[in-house]
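User: C-alpha cells for Undecaprenyl phosphate-L-Ara4FN transferase, please.
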Amino acid sequence: MNTPEITVVIPVYNEEDGLQVLFDRLYPALDQLGPSYEIIFVNDGSRDRSAAILREQYQRRPDVTRAILLAANAGQHMAIMAAFENARGQIIVTLDADLQNPPEEIGKLISKMREGYDYVGSIRRQRRDNLFRNWASKAMNRLRERTTRIRITDQGNMLRAYSRSVVNAINSCREVSTFIPALAYTFARNPTEVVVEHEERALGESKYSLYSLIRLNFDLMTAFSLVPLQWFSMLGIVVSMGSAALFVLLIVRRILLGPEAEGLFTLFALAFFLIGLALFGIGLLGEYVGRVYLQVRHRPRYLIEAVLEQQE
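Assistant: Done. Predicted C-alpha cells:
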C-alpha cells in the first residue's frame, strides 16, 4: 500500500446503528478532497455488531480502509493511540463516529494544515448539546486552562488534525492514561483552531455520561499539571492560619468574657468542614499516586485482536 497523504482515525464503540450513515458520508467527502487517504477504524471492544460491520466495510473498500479490532475496551484515547501507531499519513485527522462532526468539515482542517500549522483544533459553531452540558463544558474548559495552561477552546471536540511530527512525538510517550488533544498541544510548535459545524447525533446514544465527563476532566488536570496539589497545599496553609487565629480569639474571649456555654454546633460544623477538607486532600493525593501505580506496572495500554488491512 502506498503512503497516503491523509489518515482519518475513527474510534468505534457500540455504533452499529450509525456506521452505514457514516460510511455513506465519509468516503465521498474524502474522495472529493483529491489527495490520497486511508481510514483507520478502531473497534474499541464493542459489544454490538460494530466489528462485523467494519469487516464488511473493509471488504468493500480494502484500498483505503483499515480496521484495528481491540480485544477489550481500552477507552477512546487509547483506541486513537492504537491507530496513531499504525497510521501512515502525513496529516492525521481524528473524527468521532457519531456524525456530530460532519465528515465534510475535514477539508477545512486539511486546508489549514497546508498553511504551515502542525496542529489544528476545531471549535463547534453552534453546539447541539443541552444547556447543562454546554455550561458544564465551558466551566471545565476554564478550570482546565487555569490549571494546565493548555489553551483549547473546545476540548470536547475530537475533530482535529495533527502533523506527522506531532503524532510521532505522541507515539513516543508511554503514558497509560492521557488526553490526546492536550498532549498534542504540548508538542505543537504552531497550533491553531478553526470553526466547524456541529450536528445532532445521528443515531445511537452518547457514550459519555456525566460521571465519565467529570472523570475525563479530572484525568486531564492531574495528567498535565501539579497545580491541584499546589492549590490544596495553599488551602491547607490558609485553613491552618484561620484555625490558629480562631484559637487565639477563643482564648482572648475566655479571658475577657469567661467560658462560652453555647457554640457546640458551630464547632461541630467546623470539625466536619476540616474532616471533609482532609478527605478531599487524601483523595487528590491518591489520584496522583494511583496514576504512578498504573504507570509503573507497565501493562499494555491496549490489546489488538486483529488488524484488517491490504498487504503490499
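User: Anything notable?

Assistant: The radius of gyration is 24 Å.
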